[in-house]
């Protein structure tokens, strides 16, 4: 029996006991307040687990959303005379709508914009709560907020109301814990670990970030609404910038990427001031020092450290490994799969691609070569949607994809790997590949179960199924390269773009890679690859296109191209006679 298998029932028993306890043994007012605050705060902190822990987006306005929920309940019950549950719904909806507007308007920008905007929003909300006296009663706050009558039971009694809050908290905690393993949750973690790679494997990163932010605001609103009912009185100072920092500290202290971490962090930051009260004047300094020390020495939070003590998670039984279906069963070999016409990409005055035409037949291996800086990676970035072309058109299977965002190009069946491997480093090998399998419109993975089976089949194909439950960051470089290829294959691409797949591999690894690529070609998958290793290119390619200074200078079979005088000149840095003439 593992420590983990003991821990889960223990947590369940503790949760059930904490709900039953206030019902059978009334608590004194001090303890009730402490527990009420912890339970409602923990809901808001769980919201931060979603937005910060899972999706990696910094929000410093959780107290504002908590306040919106609280004022929703306060105004709804005392001024609009709505039933408590309707007022709670109102508060939660207002918080979620503000979350959606704020997220949708800032998350396109990326970087630290969200943090900056949330700080401003937090400050503005505090000002509105303080100064819009007609609605909020200003600094005096709102009193006599009632509690609900639900299921024919009155929850006026504080012990009962606490039990209700705890039930809601555990439901929220279970939801947040469950969310982590869902398609959406894995998408959030992919965004957090590597946003560009997430887009390229088909995650609509903008939608995922806005959803995470909106969910976080909603949970903040829910916590705030129940807080208002719990204390019966609210005022603007309870929802200030300082409180947002407290929420943020709670989630970081507990461990941002686990639901249990939020509970641990909240409990600690609410209890710590009580435990340190005997220090009187020195209390704040010791409190601050304790928080700083925990953060410095436990960057993954208290739960991160504790969960490591329980040992690595059990290896999961992923079931029977299926054979990986590859290629396009509906397509005819020899059809044009990829058509690139007059493609140009300019960076200011630099013409990285300058009117390139390439046609790739279905089921063939097409290589793109050229000296350094000739535009190869730019071509792959345009094909996968990372760059919008300046001019020209790209069609895959007859469908125009140029100008689409990367996740839509992935959905059209274009997979890719990167020269500098881009994996989701904090996830396991299996999770990385499942995210690949979950790309939109993947015919081989319509359900979560099919996606898992597809991921396992892809891992088996590249020889990594035995390492499925290992954290990808702990793998050697060559294996990480294989996982990246498996992630692309799991998405069932009709066209696979490989950006220097042999880069950084030793000789043995290169030979294994050639074997793998040959198996892919044998299965009829169309490959479009860049590599500097001419040996690999010659072994693999049916046709080669050569770029120089963003222009196509040659195309043909390997034998034709590698003898071409312009190609030899481009690689040797000479100007061919006819060009000089
Ligand atoms: N984002 C960018 N902004 C400005 N210039 C860029 C950008 N990306 C690429 N370039 C320029 O475009 C040209 C082509 O670069 P690219 O990386 O596509 O070449 P490459 O053939 O892949 O080179 P290598 O073989 O060294 O990887 C280079 O001059 C490069 O400096």
Automatic annotation (TrEMBL):
<dbReference type="InterPro" id="IPR003593">
    <property type="entry name" value="AAA+_ATPase"/>
</dbReference>
<dbReference type="GO" id="GO:0016887">
    <property type="term" value="F:ATP hydrolysis activity"/>
</dbReference>
<dbReference type="InterPro" id="IPR001851">
    <property type="entry name" value="ABC_transp_permease"/>
</dbReference>
<dbReference type="Pfam" id="PF02653">
    <property type="entry name" value="BPD_transp_2"/>
</dbReference>
<keyword id="KW-0067">ATP-binding</keyword>
<dbReference type="GO" id="GO:0005304">
    <property type="term" value="F:L-valine transmembrane transporter activity"/>
</dbReference>
<keyword id="KW-0472">Membrane</keyword>
<dbReference type="GO" id="GO:1903806">
    <property type="term" value="P:L-isoleucine import across plasma membrane"/>
</dbReference>
<dbReference type="GO" id="GO:0015808">
    <property type="term" value="P:L-alanine transport"/>
</dbReference>
<feature type="transmembrane region" description="Helical">
    <location>
        <begin position="38"/>
        <end position="56"/>
    </location>
</feature>
<dbReference type="GO" id="GO:0015192">
    <property type="term" value="F:L-phenylalanine transmembrane transporter activity"/>
</dbReference>
<keyword id="KW-1003">Cell membrane</keyword>
<keyword id="KW-1133">Transmembrane helix</keyword>
<dbReference type="GO" id="GO:1903805">
    <property type="term" value="P:L-valine import across plasma membrane"/>
</dbReference>
<feature type="transmembrane region" description="Helical">
    <location>
        <begin position="284"/>
        <end position="306"/>
    </location>
</feature>
<dbReference type="InterPro" id="IPR003439">
    <property type="entry name" value="ABC_transporter-like_ATP-bd"/>
</dbReference>
<feature type="transmembrane region" description="Helical">
    <location>
        <begin position="161"/>
        <end position="179"/>
    </location>
</feature>
<feature type="transmembrane region" description="Helical">
    <location>
        <begin position="246"/>
        <end position="272"/>
    </location>
</feature>
<dbReference type="InterPro" id="IPR027417">
    <property type="entry name" value="P-loop_NTPase"/>
</dbReference>
<dbReference type="Pfam" id="PF00005">
    <property type="entry name" value="ABC_tran"/>
</dbReference>
<dbReference type="Pfam" id="PF12399">
    <property type="entry name" value="BCA_ABC_TP_C"/>
</dbReference>
<feature type="transmembrane region" description="Helical">
    <location>
        <begin position="86"/>
        <end position="107"/>
    </location>
</feature>
<dbReference type="InterPro" id="IPR051120">
    <property type="entry name" value="ABC_AA/LPS_Transport"/>
</dbReference>
<feature type="domain" description="ABC transporter">
    <location>
        <begin position="338"/>
        <end position="574"/>
    </location>
</feature>
<feature type="transmembrane region" description="Helical">
    <location>
        <begin position="212"/>
        <end position="234"/>
    </location>
</feature>
<dbReference type="InterPro" id="IPR043428">
    <property type="entry name" value="LivM-like"/>
</dbReference>
<keyword id="KW-0813">Transport</keyword>
<dbReference type="GO" id="GO:0005886">
    <property type="term" value="C:plasma membrane"/>
</dbReference>
<dbReference type="GO" id="GO:0005524">
    <property type="term" value="F:ATP binding"/>
</dbReference>
<dbReference type="GO" id="GO:0015188">
    <property type="term" value="F:L-isoleucine transmembrane transporter activity"/>
</dbReference>
<dbReference type="GO" id="GO:0042941">
    <property type="term" value="P:D-alanine transmembrane transport"/>
</dbReference>
<keyword id="KW-0547">Nucleotide-binding</keyword>
<protein>
    <submittedName>
        <fullName>Branched-chain amino acid ABC transporter</fullName>
    </submittedName>
</protein>
<dbReference type="InterPro" id="IPR032823">
    <property type="entry name" value="BCA_ABC_TP_C"/>
</dbReference>
<feature type="transmembrane region" description="Helical">
    <location>
        <begin position="63"/>
        <end position="80"/>
    </location>
</feature>
<keyword id="KW-0812">Transmembrane</keyword>
<feature type="transmembrane region" description="Helical">
    <location>
        <begin position="114"/>
        <end position="134"/>
    </location>
</feature>
